[in-house]
Amino acid sequence: MDLFENDLFASQDEQQVSIADGAMLLRHFVQQQKNASLNEAVLLADLNYILENSSLRQMITPGGFTMSVAMTNCGALGWVSDRKGYRYTTLDPSTGLPWQPMPASFLALASATAAQAGYADFVPDACLINQYQPATRMSLHQDKDEQDFSQPIVSVSLGVPAIFLFGGAKRTDVTRKILLQHGDVIVWGGKTRLNYHGVTPLKADSHAAFGACRVNLTFRKAA
Ligand SMILES: O=C(O)CCC(=O)C(=O)O
Ligand SMILES: [Mn+2]
Prior knowledge:
The protein is of the alpha+beta class. It is built from three helices and 15 strands. The chain has one domain: Jelly Rolls.
């Protein structure tokens, strides 16, 4: 895998990898969950229900660009972007109705992974669902629309693998390339809570349950 030859993590087989002080990669975490209320099949069924009952849409940035990633949300709050800016809303702007409730399996996954990474009692109120088609990317950014930066971010990767870029506190800081595969979870917080991060253009690939797509679940405590 020469693409990842400069990546500290690519050649390692560890399930749990410390990326930085405060940031951790939990490989294949989803597949390892075998509880009745939290396992891969339940999680994917819950995700399907949300996607069937809300619409993925490409949001507009405040600068007027159309984001390439298609998004929706579940939970009490949903992240949205439009010409007015980035913010959290209680209602889905496309329907005027509340976002779908956060499924118990999602909450359990977010809390368990945060705890494993050292963040006890994480209870997210927002889950952003990002759908990447081939060639879709997310440019470097900070997650800073939340009120309490002592709460971490839990980011779950499903479907086609992607390369995640994890940088530092400044946009110009060096970024690490981290291969994220189906079932992997990255948790970051503490000193890294406002680190820049992004996703490189999704390569053509196929996954049994997700086809050519990658789906990312980003859990945050927004309020
Ligand atoms: O898709 C990912 O892995 C990252 C998503 C992300 O950073 C975001 O939605 O803010
Ligand atoms: Mn982000």
